[in-house]
Each structure stands twice: as C-alpha cells, then as structure tokens.
Write a structure and sequence with these properties.
The complex is a heterodimer of chains A (about 450) and B (about 1050).
Chain A lengths: L40 E6 L3 H12 L4 E7 L3 H17 L7 E3 L2 H6 L5 E4 L7 H9 L3 E5 L6 H13 L4 E4 L6 H11 L6 E9 L23 H5 L26 H4 L1 H12 L8 E7 L11 E7 L5 E7 L2 E6 L2 E5 L7 E2 L2 H4 L16 H12 L7 H20 L3 E4 L4 E2 L3 H5 L15
Parallel strand pairs in A: 1-2, 1-4, 2-3, 4-5, 5-6, 7-10
Antiparallel strand pairs in A: 7-11, 8-9, 8-14, 9-10, 11-12, 12-13, 14-15
Chain B lengths: L2 H14 L13 E3 L12 H10 L4 E5 L3 H13 L3 E10 L7 H10 L5 E7 L11 H17 L3 E4 L10 H11 L4 E6 H7 L5 H8 L3 E6 L9 H4 L10 H10 L6 E3 L8 H15 L3 H5 L6 H7 L8 H12 L2 H16 L5 H14 L9 H11 L20 H9 L3 H13 L3 H13 L2 H14 L5 H7 L5 H14 L2 H9 L7 H18 L2 H14 L3 H11 L4 H12 L4 H11 L6 H9 L5 H14 L5 H10 L2 H14 L5 H8 L3 H13 L5 H7 L6 H14 L5 H10 L2 H14 L5 H6 L7 H18 L3 H13 L5 H11 L2 H10 L5 H12 L7 H10 L3 H18 L7 H8 L6 H21 L5 E8 L4 H6 L15 E4 L14 E2 H4 L5 E11 L3 E10 L2 E5 L2 E6 L10 E7 L2 E11 L5 E8 L2
Helix pairs in contact in B: 5-6, 8-10, 13-14, 14-15, 14-16, 15-16, 15-17, 15-18, 16-19, 18-19, 19-21, 20-21, 21-23, 22-23, 23-24, 23-25, 24-25, 25-26, 25-27, 26-27, 27-29, 28-29, 29-31, 31-33, 32-33, 33-35, 34-35, 35-37, 37-39, 38-39, 39-41, 41-43, 42-43, 43-44, 43-45, 44-45, 45-47, 46-47, 47-48, 47-49, ...
The chains are: A alpha/beta (about 450), B alpha/beta (about 1050).
C-alpha cells in the first residue's frame, strides 16, 4: 500500500482533537490507533540537538501515525545518540528497521521515502532545508524562530504556498491554554477595544555576557562538520561557545532573545491582535548589547511597535509573559506557565459562545496538529506565513535597535519606507555556495 | 540601569570621547531665551515666535508666568514647529509648598521636551552654603517627582547672587537630590561672573554627567558687569568656540540657549547676529570629524581582534549615525584609509566593512587626493593570501567606497564582509562592481557573487549569468540558473530557455523558470507567465514542479485558473489532484461550486475530502446535492466529511438524509445530528417540523431533540400533541424538548397536560418545564388563578407539581393556596407545600415555617419545615443585618434531631465567616455621581460638584454596599461601584461619617479601583492617581480623628474594568 494514501484508511481512531478550521472527522484522517509502519507518515529529521531530540524526536516517536526513517546532524555524536534512541524505541514495538543516518541534510531531502522533514537546526539553518524540502514535494515541520532574515521568511512562505506544502512553525504557544484563552478573550472583545499589548521576553544573563577572551579559537572536534554547521554564515574560527545552544547569542546565526523568545510571545501578540498575516507600521527602540567577546545580540531591550489599527505593542526584557489592555479591561498571562489574569471576574470567567471567534489550536500540541494537517491537507495552526510574520516583528525590533532610529514599515510589501539602509538589513549575503534561489 | 551604573557608563563614554579631537557631531539645538526676544517692535508673543522661527532658531525658553499665556505660546510654537525648551523660575527652598502655577504649568507641559529651569534661593542660607541642602534636597525632590510624573526634566540654574550660584553648587545639590530627571545648567555669563578664574574644560567635564542645559552669549574676556558679560554672540572677545569645543568633547548633545538679558536694542538684529555666529561655531564638522584618524579610538579599532572589546566600534558607529552627511563622508574617507592600512587587522577590516556597508555613502568622494592616492597604493600591497585580481578595480571614476569594497573582496579574510557590504549598498556603482566580480572569481566566491547579483535583480547581468550557466562547475551552474530565476524578467526567462544545460540541471532550470514566471505574474506580464506555467505543468518533470505550476495558473485570470484547475482534477497524480481540489475552492465565481459538485463523485477519495472541506469553508450551496450524495454513498472516510459539510451547505431536501444517518451509532450519528442543528437554509425549519409527525417513533424522538437544540419554539404544539398522544418514549422526548422551548404563553398548555397519565420521571420533566417558565418570565395573575383552580380539581398525585410552580410565583394568592395545602392529609402534598414555602422568594413564610418546625406533630413535616426555616434565615442574611445570626443560633433550640442541630451550627459558622470578611470596613455610604468628562487626568483633577465648596445641589443617595454582587476583588465590606453605578471613564463620590469617642490619631486604610482622593472633615488628606485593581488597605493614611463625628468623602475614578473601593479606620498601634 502506498504510504501516502493516508486518507483512505478507514479505521476509526477518534481520539485526536484536530481543531481544523473545517473540522474533519478523525476517522476520515485515518487516525488509526496503530497503523503499520508502511502506512505512517515518514519523517526525516534535520538537526538533533537538545530540542530536536528532547522535544521533537520524542514527540514524533510517540505519534502512532508517524515513522522516523532518517536522521541528520552535522555532529556525529548527536546523530549516533539520536539513532540509538530511535532504534530502541522501535525495537520495543517489534520493528527492526533502523533509521538512515547522514551528516548532509540534502540526502534527507533527496529521499523518495520521506513525506515530511522536521527541521530543528540552529536558526540560520531553518529556511534552506525547508525550501529544498518543499521543492522536493515534502511537508515541513520547522523550529522557531523561523527565519534569520525577513527576506528568508518571505521566500519560505511563498515557496510553501507555491509548492502546496503543509508547514508547521513549532512555536509551542498556540497549544498552550493560557495564551489561547487570553487571545480568545481579546479577539472576542471582552476587554473592549484593544489598545496596548505589553510583551515581555527574558533578558540576557551571564551566559550571554561573557566578556573578552572567554571563547578562544579551538580545534574542531572530531565528527563535527563545522563548515556545514556554519552554512550560510561567514567563516569564523571554531570555538565551543559558538555552536550548540549558544549560537543564539550571535547575529550571524540568530537574533538573540528578541527572536528566540519573541517567536513565542510576539506570536501571541499577533494572535491576539488579529494581525497574524500582517505586521506593525512602525518600530523604534533601544537595546543594550555586549561590548566584548563572542556574543553580540541584545542583552536587554525596549522596543515599541505601532500597528495600523492603533494598537501599540511594547516588547521589553523582563519575565516572559504578555498583557493585553483594552478600553474596558485587561487580560494578562504573567509568565509562560501562568494562568490568565484579568481586570475583572466577569472577563476572567467569560464564556466564549459557539458563534464567537474560536482560535485554531490543538491541545495535543503542534506535532499532532502537523500530522493531522499532512493528512487533511488543511493549513496547520501556525503555517509559514504566520511564522514568518512573527519572526519579522522580531527582526524589525533588532533592526530598529541596530540603527537607533524609528522606522516606518509597510507590512503589505514588507519594506521600510524611504530607508535603503534598513531595507538592506532585510536580508544578508549567504556564504557560498548557499543561496535561497539555488537550494 | 540604576543611577550609579548610568553615571559610570556616561563617564566611561566621556572618557572615551575625551581624546582631543574625538568629539561627536555638534547636534545641539539652539534656542533663544525670553530675555532675548522682546523689544519695542516685538511686544507680542506672536511676533516674537514669528521672528525666532524666521531666523532659524529651534525654539525659545520662557519665564513662568500666567498659565493662559503659556498655553497660547505653546500653540504659537506648535504652529511653527518650534519647541519650548525651558520654563524659568526662581524657587525658594524655604517655601512650604511648590508654587501653584508651577504645578499647573507641569500639567500643561506634560510630555514635552521642556525642562524646568530652577534658579534656587534660600532666605536662610548664604550663597553656596551646603547648610541649605537640608531644606533644598527634600523640596527639590518633591518638585522633581512631580515633574517626573509629568515626564519633565529639571535643570538647576546656577545664577550669580542666588543660593545655587556656581556650577559646583548645582552639581552638589543635584547629586544629593538623586533623581534621574534632575540635572544642572552651564550658564556662560553667570559662570564668567562668579568663577572667572576657573578652568572651562575642567568644570564642563565635571558637570558632564548631569549637564542638562547650556546657555551662551557673547562676552568680553575679564568682563565684570553684565553689559560686558552678556552680549550678542557675534560680539565680545571671549572665545565661545572654546565652550562649544569643551561641550563637544564631553559629548553634550542637549540644547543650547542664547542669553540676551539686558543687551537692549533691536531684538531682531541681536538674534540675527547671534544666529550667524552660531552657524559659524557649529559647522566645524570637517575640522573635528576629519581629525578622527590617529586618535586612541582609531588605534583601538585598527588593532581589534575577534572576541575582544567592541566598544570602540560602538562609539564609531554612534558617530557615524549622529554625523551630518558631510561629516559622515569625512569619517568614511578615514575608514577607507584604515582599510588600506597594513596596520589594520583583518578582523577590524571586516567590522569596518560592515559599518561602511551599513552607513556608507556610495556617492561620497574621498576628502583629499593625496589620501586617496595613498589608499590606492596601500590597497594593492600584498597582505595575507591575497589573490591577484583579474581586473583592476575602478577607483578614479567610480565611488571610492564601492571600489574599495570591491577590492577587498580579493582578500579571503574580507571577501564575505565586502560582498555583504556591496550587497547592501544601493546604486549602479555597486551593481557594476558585482558584475565585474563575476569575471574575477571562481568557485564558491563566484557563487556568492552570483547569488548577490541575483538577489539584486540586476538586469544588466543576464548575459553574464547565462554565460556562467555554461560553466564546468556544477555549483556555479546552479547558482547562475537560480540567479536568472530571481531576476524575474523576460530576458532572464529567455536566457533560461536558451541556455544549453546537461540533463541533470533540468529541475534547477524549471524551478528557475517558475520563479521567473511568478515574478512576471506579479508584475502584470500574465500572458508570458501563463505560457511558462502551462509548459511546466504539462512537461515539468517532477510532481512538485507541476504542483507549483498549477499554483501559478490558479493565480491567473479566473477563467484560465478555473479551466486549469478543473483539468488538474483529472490528473492521475494524487498530489496534483489534491492540490487542484485545494485550489479550486479558493477560486472566485459561482460556477466553482457547481463545477465542484459535478466533479466530486468522480474524484479520488482524498481529493473528495479536501474538496468537501474547502466547499464547506467556502459556504457556497451550489454543490450541496453532490455533497449529500457523498454523505449517503461515500466511502466510510468520505461520508463523514460530507455529512459535516452538509450542515453548512444543505437545505430542506437534505433533512431526511441527515435524519436517517442520525440514527446510526458513533461518528455518523453524532455528526448528522450536529449538521441537522446547523442547517440554516430557507425551508429547513418546516422540513424538520414535518419530520415530527409520521415516520418511526425513534426518528421522531431524535428529531424532537434536534428541534430543542435548534430552539424551534414553533414546534411546541407538535410536542404537546406528542405528550398527549404518544407513547412513553415519545412523551419523554417531547417533555425534554418542551423544557427547552416553552415560554410564558405555553403555561396553560402545560397545565392542561397535568391530567395526562405519565411516569414519575415524565411528571418531573413536566414540573421542570413549568418551573422553567416561571423562572424565565414569571406568571400572570390570570395564570395564578388558573393554577389554583386546577389545584383544587386535580388528584393528589398531580398537586405537588402545581404547588411547586405556584411556589415559584411568590404571590399572596399563591401563598394562601399553598398554606391551605398544608392541611392536606396526603403526605406528598404537605411535603410539596412545605418545600414551596421554604423556597419562597421572600421571608413571608418564616413565622409559619418556624411554628411548624417547633410544633408540627408530624416528625417529617417538622424536620422539613425546620430546614426550610433555617435556610430562609440564612438567605436573608447580609453582613449588615445583625439580627439574623442570633435567630439562626436560636433555631438550634427547637431542632428535633442531633443532625439538625449540627446543621444549624454549620450555618452559624458560615455566617460568622461572612461577618469576618467585612473586616471592619465601613459599610454605610452615600453616593453622588457618576460624573464624567475628559481623560484620566481630567477625571482625576477636575473638581466635580461634591468637591466644590458650598455646592448644595449635589444629590447624595444612600447605597446598599452589602447587597452584592461580590467578586474576587470586591468582597462583602467593599463598595462594588461596578454593580451600583457601572460604566467607564467616570468618577463617583462616596461620603460617610466616622464616629470617634476621643480625639485621636488613627490610620485610614483605603483601597480603590482605579484612582482615589480622600477628604476628612473637609481637608484633602489623600490622593493616588493610579490604575489598578482593588486591594483592601492598599493606601494607609495617617489621620487625626476629632471627638464625635468626622466627615469622610472619597472620590473614586473609573477608567475601565472593575470599579470599587473600601475604607476602614484602624488604630495607629
């Protein structure tokens, strides 16, 4: 049986909450409680670091309709460890197949037996494999922050639409009940007319502000394909603090906390503000940047965005949470796990009626949502355009801080008004041979 | 950042900037002080503002005077886009309070750039005496804090003859005041007067961290009197340029005012001469910006190694950012020279290149020929592993910046940085260099250049790219083909078609052609795009490419799109068929649904599902019959989606189908019922009603549930008929539905059902339906009479129903009828009567219940009445009603059983807890208002009638603060103004009297949502302009209570959300 004929499976499973805009019965999705490996969605993993394995690989291994068939990482140790974990998992299920392993993601994309790729690389390696996978007819599950530059995001989103691929931005927050509840209260007018959003992201700690000489050049460890790890980023001497995890404090590979956590909290802001497919019209702010050492992204920041609908989004360093303020009250999620707070009991306990706005979510999280959508061919709850727009807000904040002036932004054509300098910062030259057009 | 850190940072920067020539750009704004703008010809503020604007000043400063004048002046300044930089006034630290007009002025100036320019006197301390600090510091803090609330800064104004006379005095006091919005002024004339022997640079460096304002004027060296010390800026022999240089040296960027006190003569001439002099003083950019090279800063930059300190680059970037265009060009010239220097490390070069890519000016010429020549010479001297350039870069004719960057690409260490910089720089110069670079490089470097050329969509590069597509290097071929795709032009498209490529590049070429076609489509060249898209769709090779081509075709004109997509539905490829199904429902036009309907049956199952979901989203009923067919005949996977879609698309003709499928178990039944409930096309209601008669009993019962869920009250007659005539199953279903649908007008019909024989469960359903009516809308007197009449006629098994319903009405007639029922010999009737009295809406039955509880010989009735009595007492309790608790406690005396005693004790405990929750809050209040008008500030500051002395027209009304409802934050004892008054953006006043047996000190604890003001015995005692949720005891105010009654009044501001307050007096101890 062709593994991709998912929709024809007729056994009823009836457990997954799929929450699509148009709800398709679980039975129609072929949510078989234990389809045979040949009937599962075949996944190839690109990037097997802490989150790639700890969250994404583990989650997909436990989805009954997914089968991990190939693994890729530039770090041979990580690759080996992930392969062993995968093999052990399937052995317990009586399967003897071993996942294919490789250090070159292009081999994953080129395989015919893979339906979708899961990209959990550092940020500068999100878009290129995703685009290549889409061009090869594969669906994509990709980690946040989705992009390294605004231009990357535009190309990514267009490519996914053009090639008809299903894409999930793995930002987590859209499966969290607290943020969902806050946004639904806002979207349904419970706090009146929304006028201010106060987003707080974590601030940089000592790990990020290490001072000079903390990361002297070191020999590249055995089994680590450093050149491939660098990818599109400029050449730079290897040092341990540059790569795994800490890459996010360096602009060559990421955007710092502004993008790392902005991908969560600013996404909630977009969700609540109903601007998921748009963006602000101006941005200004300032940040404190390390003056020494390897890392250069902002330690603390205070950025203000204004939307065409008059809503102001303040994004500051602090404790990650979000507060929506309207002319009739406020709702607040003070931290990642906190329950929603509100200005009144009435708002807090307000029931969202059946005819009101119910936002797309999936209580079984983004991995389940992705697999459902791969089958139904309906958009996920955070498709590429949504992830790109959220990432764009974060990039806008960084650009405004780096230029030190207020910028006007046209979210329709995604360009700054009368500002060549800022417009040039929407993209970067990729280190050869990598490019968006020839991936 | 705390103040200390801020000072350290500022000092660090000032030290860094203190290199002799390393000043930042003189970005100071220049304004005229009010001492300089008036003369016989310029007596009105209007003429003064006009003159100042015409002469090019950025604004003025004023002395604090009349607030109306201030407002008028601000209007005039705003109209000319000028700023009011300062309000000058003299304050005395011996004063007991802040001058009233200053407070008012702060409100008017809120949020503007203006600062409060304070000359500070002291009647108790002589000039500069630190003894005065004891009084000055708290007084100035008070002003500073008020200013901060209004987002204003304070600059102390050292003034000859004042207590703060010297700059050092201002600094000492400002540091002790220790508020972030307080700084000091450097007044040239006063400094010359009181500190003639002081070193200028020393004092300005000392003042730098707190320097907020500066005033200058022309002066004579060694001048003694004001005529010598205050002149036009173009007069006098004192070198004011030194002052400006010293200010530049410390990076002072604040405003500079022209002091014109006592100059006299023609104000226009004075100001014009001064402006000329100012312009001569400040365009000195070339002289200082040109002196960058050779400073410590530049040495630090040149020696930078990755991982080291980047502070120098930060400073350099700040200077580039703040520099005027001509200054920036000069800095750029210096940086280009640094790039040519062998002493500059590769890491430094990369960072400098990055800065030039970001801030560089392509059209800027190099400042000096000699330097340029030197740069050219240096640039091509070997450093590192440089490769020989194929072409000599342009340097004489083109942009020095661009040609330098192009040359730096030849060095491996700087290749990527230079390429990125060129990518960022707009204009034909950089494009030309990039095209030239395509001929110079090979391998990965060439690929990098090609990618940038493609991104820039340089049309002149098409031929070169096409030529490179013939390269032997496969990476170069892919890059060139991709770059041509990015071009998106017709020439690029033609080139892509014509270039000869080995087979392995076919897919790359097709991706590129698609990219081109998409750009052409967006650009309006639809026909060209269509040809490519159709070709790719037909011959694209991979499915992915064909899907992408179809996506493009679907974005062409609707007719083409529809035709293409429909054709694709026939594809044998599942992927394409799925894509087509997804695209079809996004197309415009009514024919889409019809076509979809026609094609649905023959589609691949997966495509059917996608199309069904899309059709439902689209909401177009044109395909409803086809959907229904699949709902009936589709495969097990498809039918569910079809049933679901039919709920959104179907009409009356689909009711029977959904009804039939509703009877199935599991998902089909559940979804069919949901769809029946969602159907909303015309005629659906009658179609469903028709299904209530005829057909199978099971069908009818299920449809009764549907009509209930749909809220179809028109079904009530049919349902009543079913109760009368139907069997048990149908009667139960009908009664269940009736409960959801009946209204007051149906009560009589339900009463008529009482004689109908039915099970106990059904009778309960009937009772529930009748009670639901009473609860929803009440009953009329006529209906009460009817119920009483019925009560007297019906048998005892039915009487409890009527008694329960009557009990809900709470009328006297009903009370009498129920009381009579207490005499019934039928136990169930008596019990129903006691229950009805226990649930009575008022306390009228209390005596009756108490007597029965105590005396009724029937144990069951007695216990029932006892519980009813206690429950009713508890319901009557409110925290202010202190009669209830003793009554509840007393009830324990006639409890007949231990468990009843326990029941009472529990109730007492609950009530005691409720009393405790009041927590000593004042519960007796009168209310005036609401009053509205204006924003938060206006609401807070406006003295509405209750605040106005002698206003006797205020209407005060008593309020019941204990009636509830209560919320999490507004509990018993708090005043829930949301419930009592409601609304947003308003204020209410509350007043009460507090009795004290002695004159004593106490603490008044206040809570409010939002802001609050309080008056005790007519004196304002508290003010808190806050937006917050209510918290009891948040504000603690020390008060002195008089013996006897004390009048307390509160003003509570409501902006939004909850609104409430609380107040209690607690002992000071």
């Amino acid at each position: 049986m062709n593994r991709r004929r998912f929709l024809r499976t007729t056994l009823a499973a009836g457990t997954a909450a799929i929450g699509l805009p148009v709800i398709i019965p679980a039975r129609a999705l072929g949510n078989d409680s234990s389809p045979s490996p040949g009937n599962r969605i075949a996944l190839g993993f690109i990037g097997l670091g802490g989150h790639g394995v700890g969250v994404n690989l583990n989650s997909f291994l436990h989805q009954p309709d997914a089968q991990v068939v190939a693994l890729c990482d530039v770090d041979a140790n990580r690759l080996k460890s992930a392969a062993e974990r995968t093999q052990q998992h399937y052995s317990r299920q009586g399967q003897s197949e071993r996942p294919v392993t490789t250090g070159d993601w292009r081999e994953i994309v080129a395989r015919d037996d893979i339906d979708a790729v899961v990209v959990s690389t550092p940020d500068h390696w999100h878009v290129l494999p995703a685009i290549a996978a889409a061009r090869a007819g594969k669906d994509v599950f990709c980690e946040k922050p989705l992009t390294l530059t605004i231009h990357e995001g535009r190309v990514l989103s267009d490519t996914m639409r053009q090639y008809g691929r299903i894409f999930q931005t793995a930002s987590e927050n859209r499966s969290k009940g607290n943020f969902l509840r806050a946004c639904e209260l806002v979207r349904n007018g419970r706090i009146g007319k929304l006028h201010t959003i106060r987003a707080e992201l974590p601030q940089g700690g000592s790990r990020q502000n290490v001072g000079p000489q903390a990361h002297p050049p070191q020999p590249v460890p055995d089994g680590f394909d450093y050149d491939m790890w660098l990818g599109q980023a400029p050449e730079a001497p290897y040092t341990r603090g540059r790569c795994h995890f800490d890459f996010r404090w360096i602009f060559d590979y990421s955007g710092g906390l502004m993008t790392d956590w902005g991908a969560h909290i600013n996404d909630v802001a977009q969700w609540g503000n109903d601007t998921e497919h748009s963006g602000p019209v101006s941005v200004e702010g300032h940040g404190v940047f390390p003056q020494d050492g390897l890392y250069n992204t902002a330690l603390t920041f205070d950025v203000l965005y204004e939307y065409a609908n008059g809503v102001k989004l303040s994004c500051k360093s602090g404790v990650p949470g979000i507060r929506f303020e309207g002319d009739e009250g406020w709702v607040h999620v003070p931290n990642w796990e906190a329950a929603v707070q509100a200005s009144s009991e009435e708002i807090l306990h307000s029931v969202i009626g059946p005819d009101e706005i119910h936002l797309r979510t999936c209580k079984d999280r983004e991995h389940r949502d992705f697999l459902n959508c791969v089958k139904s061919r309906q958009p996920t709850y955070a498709p590429a355009e949504v992830g790109h727009r959220t990432a764009t807000i974060c990039h806008l904040g960084n650009i405004a801080m780096l230029l030190g002036r207020k910028l006007r932004w046209n979210p329709d054509n995604e360009s700054f008004l009368d500002d060549d300098q800022a417009n040039a910062m929407r993209s970067r030259a990729m280190r050869a041979p990598w490019s968006l057009s020839a991936v | 950042m705390n103040r200390l850190l801020m000072l350290i940072s500022l000092l660090a920067v000032s030290v860094l900037l203190s290199a002799p020539v390393a000043g930042a750009r003189q970005a100071n704004e220049f304004f005229a002080m009010d001492t300089a703008i008036g003369d016989a010809k310029h007596r009105t503020r209007e003429s003064q503002v006009k003159m100042v604007a015409e002469l090019g000043y950025d604004g003025i400063s004023l002395g604090l005077g009349n607030i109306a004048d201030l407002k008028d002046t601000l209007r005039l300044l705003d109209a000319k886009k000028l700023k009011l930089y300062a309000i000058y006034l003299t304050v005395s630290v011996d004063a007991e309070q802040i001058p009233g007009n200053l407070v008012e002025a702060m409100t008017v100036l809120k949020g503007r750039v203006s600062c409060l320019w304070l000359a500070v006197n002291s009647s108790s301390s002589r000039f500069s005496s630190p003894i005065g600090d004891l009084l000055a510091v708290p007084y100035l803090r008070e002003i500073a804090d008020l200013a901060a609330k209004n987002k204003l800064r304070v600059a102390l104004y050292p003034h000859a003859g004042s207590w703060i006379e010297r700059v050092e005095d201002g600094l000492r006091v400002a540091e002790k005041v220790n508020r972030p919005n307080v700084g000091v002024t450097f007044n040239l004339c006063h400094w010359l007067k009181v500190s003639p022997n002081q070193d200028l640079v020393t004092i300005i460096r000392k003042a730098a961290p707190l320097l907020t304002m500066v005033s200058i004027n022309g002066a004579d060296r060694g001048g003694k009197d004001w005529k010598q010390l205050i002149q036009r800026l173009d007069r006098g022999n004192y070198d004011v340029g030194k002052v400006m240089a010293a200010l530049k040296d410390v990076g002072y960027k604040g405003p500079v005012g022209f002091q014109g006190f006592g100059i006299g003569g023609d104000a226009h001439a004075n100001l014009a001469g001064t402006m000329d002099a100012w312009r001569k003083l400040t365009p000195a950019a070339p002289s200082w910006e040109g002196e960058l090279l050779g400073t410590d800063l530049m040495k630090e930059i040149a020696s930078y190694k990755a991982g080291g300190s980047r502070k120098a680059f930060t400073v350099l970037e700040e200077r580039l950012r703040d520099a005027r265009p001509e200054g920036r060009d000069i800095i750029q010239g210096k940086l280009l020279d640094m790039l040519a220097s062998k002493k500059t490390t590769p890491d430094a070069k990369c960072r400098l290149i990055g800065l030039l890519g970001k801030w560089g000016n392509v059209s800027a010429r190099h400042p000096t020929t000699s330097v340029r020549a030197e740069r050219k010479r240096s640039l091509f001297m070997p450093f590192g592993k440089r490769r020989a350039p194929v072409n000599t870069p342009k340097t004489d004719d083109g942009s020095p910046l661009v040609s330098t960057l192009a040359s730096l690409m030849d060095e491996p260490a700087t290749f990527h940085a230079a390429l990125e910089a060129l990518r960022s720089l707009p204009g034909p110069e950089s494009e030309g260099e990039l095209r030239a670079a395509m001929a110079r490089f090979k391998g990965d470097e060439l690929v990098g250049v090609i990618n940038v050329v493609g991104e820039r969509r340089d049309g002149q590069a098409v031929d070169k790219l096409a030529a490179l597509a013939g390269s032997q290097d496969t990476t170069v071929v892919c890059a060139a083909v991709g770059a041509l795709g990015s071009m998106g032009s017709e020439t690029a498209l033609a080139a892509l078609k014509e270039i000869r490529l080995p087979k392995e590049f076919t897919v790359a070429r097709t991706h590129a052609r698609l990219a081109c076609a998409n750009r052409l489509l967006v650009g309006g060249a639809r026909q060209k795009a269509q040809r490519v898209l159709e070709d790719v769709y037909a011959n694209g090779g991979t499915t992915a490419l064909r899907v992408a081509a179809l996506d493009g075709l679907a974005r062409l004109d609707n007719a083409v799109a529809v035709k293409s997509v429909i054709a694709a539905l026939d594809s044998k490829s599942r992927e394409i068929c799925l894509a087509a199904a997804g695209l079809l429902v996004k197309l415009n036009g009514s024919e889409v649904a019809r076509i979809a309907g026609e094609r649905l049956p023959s589609l691949h199952e997966d495509a059917q599902i996608v199309l069904l979901a899309g059709l439902e989203q689209r909401g177009d009923r044109g395909a409803a019959d086809a959907v229904a067919k699949l709902a009936r005949d589709g495969t097990n996977a498809v039918d569910l989606v079809a049933i679901r879609a039919l709920g959104g698309l179907g009409g009356p003709t689909h009711v029977a189908l959904l009804e039939q499928r509703m009877l199935e178990e599991g998902e089909p039944g559940k979804l069919s019922r949901e769809s029946l409930c969602r159907l909303d096309a015309p005629g659906v209601g009658p179609a469903i009603l028709a299904r209530l008669s005829g057909g199978q009993v099971t069908n009818r019962c299920e449809m009764m549930g549907v009509v209930a869920d749909r809220g179809m009250s028109e079904a009530v007659p049919s349902l009543i008929g079913a109760v009368r005539k139907g069997g048990d199953e149908e009667r139960s279903a009908a009664l269940r539905a009736l409960r959801a649908l009946v209204t007051n007008e149906h009560l009589d019909d339900l009463v008529d059902l009482l004689p109908v024989e039915m099970t106990e469960s059904d009778r309960s359903r009937l009772t529930a339906a009748m009670k639901a009516i009473v609860a929803k809308a009440g009953v009329t007197d006529k209906q009460i009479e009817r119920l009483i009449a019925v009560l007297n006629k019906i048998d005892s098994t039915t009487k409890p129903v009527v008694i329960e319903v009557l009990g809900r009405s709470g009328t006297d007639r009903a009370f009498g009828a129920i009381k009579e029922s207490l005499d019934s010999k039928v136990v169930e009737v008596r019990k129903a009567a006691i229950r009805a009295l226990s649930d009575w809406p008022t306390t009228k039955p209390l005596p009756l219940l108490r007597d029965m509880a105590r005396d009724d010989p029937d144990m069951v009735a007695g216990v029932l009445a006892f519980r009813g009595y206690v429950d009713m007492l508890v319901r009557d309790f409110s925290p202010g009603n202190d009669r209830v608790l003793p009554k509840v406690e007393a009830a324990a005396e006639f409890a007949r059983r231990p468990e009843d005693k326990q029941f009472v004790l529990q109730k007492v405990k609950n009530l005691q807890n409720a009393v405790k929750e009041i927590g000593g809050c004042i519960c007796t209040w009168e209310l005036a208002g609401p009053y509205s008008g204006g924003n938060r500030q206006s609401l807070f500051n406006t003295a509405f009638p209750p605040e106005q002395d002698g206003n006797t027209e205020v209407e005060w009304r008593s309020i019941d603060t204990l009636a509830g409802p209560f919320t999490k934050l507004l509990r018993p004892g708090d005043i829930n103004l949301t419930a009592i008054v409601g609304g947003n953006n308003r204020v209410a006043y509350l007043r009460t009297r507090v009795f004290s047996t002695t004159e004593r000190d106490a603490i008044l604890e206040l809570g409010s949502d939002d802001g609050i003001k309080a008056w005790l015995n007519g004196e304002a005692i508290w003010s808190n302009d806050i937006v917050t949720a209510h918290k009891r005891g948040r504000d603690k105010v020390n008060v002195r209570l008089m013996k006897g009654t004390n009048d307390l009044m509160l003003k509570i501001i409501q902006l939004g959300g909850e609104w409430g307050a609380s107040a209690r007096v607690v002992e000071k101890q």
